[in-house]
Amino acid sequence: MTWHNQRTAVAKLATGVPGFDLIGYGGLPEGRSTLLSGTSGSAKTVFACQFLAEGIRRGQTGVFVTFEESPDAIRKNMEGFNWNIPAWEAEGKWAFVDVSPYPEQETIVSGNYDLNALLVRIENAVRKTGARRMSLDSLGGIFAQLGDSCTVRNELFRIVSALKKMGVTSIITAERTEEYGQVSRYGIEEFVTDNVIILRNGLEQEKRRRTIEILKFRGAPHQKGEYPFTVSPNQGVVVIPLSAIELTQKSTDMRIRSGVPELDRMCGGGFFRDSIVLLSGATGTGKTLVTTSFIAGGVESGERCLLFAFEESRDQLFRNATGWGVDFEKMEEAGNLKVVCEYPETGSLEDHLIAMKAVVDEFKPQRIAIDSLSALERVATVKSFREFAIGLTSYIKDQNVAGLFTATSSNLLGGSSVTETHISTITDTIILLRYVEMHGEMRRGVTVLKMRGSTHEKNIREFTIDGKGMHIGKPFRNISGILSGHFIHRPQDEMDRLREMFKEDADGIAQTLDIPSAGDRGR
Question: Which residues contact 41 (CB under 8 A, 6 or more apart)?
């Protein structure tokens, strides 16, 4: 369901904040006040400034009322987001109403306190600029000077009522002391304002994670729950609305080469053009080799390929590819390949997702390989990693390109990776690479565990690696328990007997159901 389909009597004002208008079904209710509440470091001031900056880019002027930081401090702090506030002020598009205290000023309040003078200044700024948007940051700075909660409620009600009469859509920031405790410091702000948005900057497993939640839109629909967001140096607040992702991706029967001919045959003729392939295996089983072959196969087919590497450096990747007869450097020089190497610890998963999307939008590849997802998993909680995987997978599928993800199994023999557990249901094809112990020797095996929309080979086949790449051989016949890691070697005569038993059972069932036998179907 998209916000375009949501009918409401309350008009919405598009904020322009990436992702937010999706979860707000069009933006903020127009002409109303919104409480933006959050703990320290949750990006309240950035959001408040971005709301005005995006409005100016849409031809809507704004007023910023500051109760704590000076206008000079705000101008300087927002330079990193490419918001030229001084230029907007000179053009009459942005106006400050400065209520921030001076360092040497000591304010003592006694008796009744009202905000008449402040409201007059605000109204004058709105009239002068013709503002449609306003941000007040933060009311806690002045409410701390008021006597009691009753006075706070009355004065806040007066401010909200005055802003409505001015016809502006406003954001009012407020502090809170706990991520999941009381909505605001005084416990009354959320009842006076029309809308409430909560920003969180929680600490989970020694990792910070920012989320945004629309608690209420009075008389207007919105998405429920928390959504991850990040603060980008060039964009400001960027919300990642995972629940707004729609299953509208187009599907195709077109096949592409994996770069390994025998693997194509195991997959029924190759990968689908719009499929996401998960390649899982223990360290050293050949995941990077298959990834290299996947890239090389795409370039040979005239496709643009993009490789994100999170475990190996650029020099390592190029050296390893050369050892298998693949020249990544030549591919890059021809403009057919782009390699991006980053340590996962350089940013949050939200930061990585936004950066990866930007690269995809710029380079416009037909194939994308990520080596590996397991490396990204170590910088996130279980929940945030799954959200990242869903967001990345849906985005790649929406671009109608083929994606190959690698995941590392924790066990050398058998087992499954945590990464595989989280994203196996959202991938189209799963290929397992496994070590196989035979008579004191370690060998390698490959099998196609699943492939949506296509028949595929069920055998576990042995493969070898040499200077020319991956060579897939015959199936393992005298050994079982490969996927679990509990190997059982069986004599050839026992294997033949078991096959004959199952063949008789299969033929009997086929006769009962009047289904042609395998031999009859072949004639």
Answer: 201
Whether 350 is catalytic is no
The tokens for 343 are 């340590």
Is the Cβ–Cβ distance between 183 and 37 less than 8 Å?
Answer: yes
- E strands of 218-323, at which residues? 226-232, 236-239, 255-256, 271-272, 276-281, 305-309
DSSP letter string over 91-132? TTSEEEEE-PPPTT------S----HHHHHHHHHHHHHHT-S
Q: Decide if pLDDT at 1 tops 90.
A: no
Residue 300 falls in the annotated catalytic set: no
More confident residue, 493 or 153: 153
- Please give the Cα distance from 241 to 22 (Å, whole number): 7
Any alpha helices (H) in 228-364, and if so which ranges?
261-266, 287-300, 314-323, 328-333, 349-363
Out of 155, 189, 311, 420, the active site residue is 311
In this prediction, residue 383 carries a pLDDT of 82
Residue ranges of domains in the chain: 3-244, 255-489, 492-522
CATH superfamily of 255-489: P-loop containing nucleotide triphosphate hydrolases (3.40.50.300)
What's the CATH number of domain 3-244, 3.40.50.300, 3.40.50.150, 3.30.70.270, 3.30.360.10? Answer: 3.40.50.300
Residue tagged active-site, from 54, 68, 189, 350? 68
Given the DSSP bridges, would you call strands 276-281 and 429-438 parallel, antiparallel or unpaired? parallel
Whole-angstrom Cα distance, residue 279 to residue 505? 34
Q: How far apart are CA 393 and CA 386, in angstroms?
A: 10
Contact 275, 396 (CB under 8 A): no
Distances (CA, A) of 31 to 11, 12, 467: 9, 9, 68
| Average pLDDT of span 348-370 | 94
Quote the pLDDT of residue 419. Answer: 55
Domain 3-244 matches domain 255-489 at the CATH topology level: yes
